Amino acid sequence: MMTNLNNNILPISCQEVKQNSVDFFLGKIKVKELIELVSVTSRAITGFNDLGEPLYNNNDYIQREPNPSRVNSIKNYLLTDEDACFPNNILISVPSILLAEEVKNGDLEYDESHIFTLKIDKNRINLTSTEAPIYLQIFDGQHRFRGIQLAIQELRQTGSNDEKLKELENFEFVVSFFIEAEIEFQAMLFSIINRTPVKVSQDLVYDLFGLTIKDSPQKTALAIVLQLNGLREKEDGKVGPFYRRIRLLSRKEKGFDSPISQGIFIKQLLKLISPSLSKADQERLWEREQLLTGGNDRTIFRQWYATNKDNNIYKTLLNYFIAVREIFIDENGNSYWDFGITPDNALQRTIGFTALIEILIKIFPDCMREKNISIDFFKKYLVKAKNIQLVGDERPYPFTSIGGKMLKDDLEKLIFD
Description:
Layout: E1 9-19, E2 22-30, H1 31-34, E3 44-48, E4 54-57, H2 68-80, E5 90-94, E6 115-121, E7 137-140, H3 142-158, H4 162-169, E8 172-179, H5 183-195, H6 202-208, H7 217-230, E9 246-247, E10 260-261, H8 262-270, H9 277-283, H10 302-306, H11 310-327, H12 350-370, H13 375-382, H14 401-416
Parallel strand pairs: 5-8, 9-10
Antiparallel strand pairs: 1-2, 1-6, 2-8, 3-4, 5-7
């Protein structure tokens, strides 16, 4: 916890942490205080002179420039998500010249309950000098800091939301403070943290929306995908077109082919509700009726979602892909959609699914005009492309993004030209 002793000395209460031969201090600091102490720059502090003043690498910029796209994404996350947080700590190197007094961590026996105080002398901070600025250096966490810094700047300039501005100014970062961390140590630690990050699968991300209480396009999309994947039989006794066809949590179910991942299916469905995936992230916090506007000609399910007609979305996808399975058949009446019955082809792959979604977008305005989402309605469009060559001596459509575009373009020409 921090309390201001005076306007010039900023005390930061910390606990000492010992890991092998490395000592650092773990504490927290409010963003409005951190903004006055650090600078986001590609210039790296490489060492310190006899006075404790930082030395810089002016020719070979070691510190990476923050990625504008990533910074902007973090800024929007903070401005739009009321639950936005960063529980992981940022790493900061503290030049000893900025300490009002020495941290006496070497003379005391280590006690995990003992609280140390870093006293930062703000009079010695110099963020404006082009030759020899002096500041605390963030060597891991620049994107998070820069994102919240820009969010605060935007709120201050627009004066649009004083409550949100106050929240972000008092936002607390968990920080690991290293006293005069050498550049080699910074580089080593940074590379270890960022070298092999484990990317969370989109399947798992979307699966977690099923645990949330709040309604959202993501939760609706997940529910529809799971319902389609579990539909064994319709009224006519036929197995549903997606029965165990969707790979849940990136795993193939034993004994079944599951070429479409849950994450890909949900992303495709989200883009039929929201104009983009980034917009969908914002709209997950909205009430449904707020989505009555703001779509485009590709967000074909937006109005249905906004008016609580999720079942219409489900029935459209179900009937459309039943029509796909019954139209695209070989000379023996076997469907190119079904595994094991016909040779491996584009319709049994993700590229076929995404291409068919593009065709559904083109057909959908007629569905709305005629108020018809029946299987037969979709068949009268798809039948025009029933003779498209899906198998042959050479694969007509490579299982790549290029092959998917080729398939979409050919289906579109056959159906609509």
